Amino acid sequence: MKLSPPLLGCAVQSGDLSLVQFLVSKGAYVNGRDDITGHTPLHYLAFRFGDPSGSYEIAKFLTDKGADVNAKDFDGNTPLHLVPSHWSDVAELLINRGANVNAQNKSYQTPLHTAASSYCGTKVIKLLLAAKVEVNTKDFIGSTPLHYAVGNNCVESVAMLVDAGADVDWKDNKGISPFIQANEKYLDATRGGTYKEEGETYQKMIRIMEAARKRRS
Q1: Would you state the pLDDT for residue 51?
Q2: Which long-range contacts (CB under 8 A, 24 or more apart) does 181-188 make?
Q3: Class of the domain covering 132-217
């Protein structure tokens, strides 16, 4: 008996490892796809609600059973693209089992773009950098992961990316570089003195990028 992929996906989302194991033992295909989204069970893992405990064990079980860590959904996302930024243990498992850290989705984004898009997803960013991810890949609007880190107001992410060689002066399709972006956000935050704390954060980013420019010159 072949069980439908969405049924296993729902079990994965529920976080019930014993149910996942039962369904697989009864024929549920670990690489089966949802007909609408193209999600495999590993993709569904990223959409768990509530308590994320047990996610690592489910990911390990699925990959032990042959789940494809590089399977792409209909948007071109691999499971690594979708892993929540605080699930560093799951991200590490996927990387160790062969996930392509430079895989691009249909928006030309890599997992580093999505990690930088998550608020302070520094643990996953650190793992990706250690796995030699390309830090200056441009997406469909010309933005690099550093653009997204600046946009998410996370100094630590910005510092990590800059230290890894992210280009602070690369301009996106609108002609905006991460350095320009940080300066514009600093001016917006401090105009009228209403967002002083946020302004200080952007000021720290500017200093980090200024130092990188000096080292490069």
Answers
A1: 66
A2: 181/147, 181/150, 181/151, 182/150, 182/158, 182/206, 182/209, 185/150, 185/151, 185/153
A3: mainly alpha
